[in-house]
Automatic annotation (TrEMBL):
Protein name listed in UniProt: Fungal lipase-type domain-containing protein
Residues annotated as domain Fungal lipase-type: 37-174
Pfam families xref list: Lipase_3 (PF01764)
BP GO terms, sorted: lipid metabolic process
Provenance organism: Caenorhabditis brenneri
Amino acid sequence: MKLSKRFLVDCSDPSPVLPTTKCAMITAVDTTQKILVMSFRATVGDTQLGEEVLNYFVGKKQFFDVGMIFEFFYNAYVALWRGGLEQEIRNLKYKYPDYELWVTGHSLGAALASVGASWVVKAGIFKPDTVKVFTAGQPRTGDYNYALWHQNTFAYSFRVVHHHDIVPHVPFQYEVVDHDKMYHHRTEVWYNNDMSVGSSYQICPEADGLYCVNQQVDLSWNDHTHYFNTDLNVYGDLGCPKK
């Protein structure tokens, strides 16, 4: 698999007080397995994390005709789409018309992966049966209608969750301001362990009931930054070493 293009765009809250923050993603191509990839970066820095938390109380935006998604995720994805991603994806689809599209990300990147996969299908660029979605530590991304549409549209969509990871519990299901509910879409894959090689996992068919990770009350930020027995805070800086 080879890198095709890297995108780094301003996805800041428009507040004149806060400094600029960036969202990033890459596209890649595997000509052997006939795969195109969109991979989205997680939250970087306390400022961007603060923006996300504050925006939990701002509201949601309509996503085509299939429901509402969290406004911060919507705006961040649109910034990437308008920042060159649309042209890149259309070019790749034109050049490799029979390739699958794999969409992935961690944390904020997981939410953007959910939105991105949904966007390219609603835009008519890819058919759902050619798209695979695989996320790690995904926060709740949209309302019930969006979650229902997503899980009824994508046959292959998995949300991997590590142990007591706190992020899949936010935004809260019951919003303080508008009293709207946020829901995960299927299918959760829960690792109730350190995720080392050979670890067991549980497939959780109900999208957002009191099962699997939703049973946990002792939540952990450390579990959010460690997936597949790897510290994601330093993995890239170390050159993505193979175990």
